[in-house]
Amino acid sequence: MVLFGAVVVLFRVLRFVLAMVGVIARVVIRVKIDITNGFGIWLF
Fold it and tell me: Which of 26, 31, 36, 43 keeps 20 to 30 A from 8, CA to CA?
């Protein structure tokens, strides 16, 4: 029973970490796109 609880907690932590990584990845991609568009506007 203790093991099952530990597995549930581990899964919750894993899901939380994956969610955070997903959010960070989206922000990074958006910033990269903004920088690329900014340079494109600046150069041309």
Answer: 26
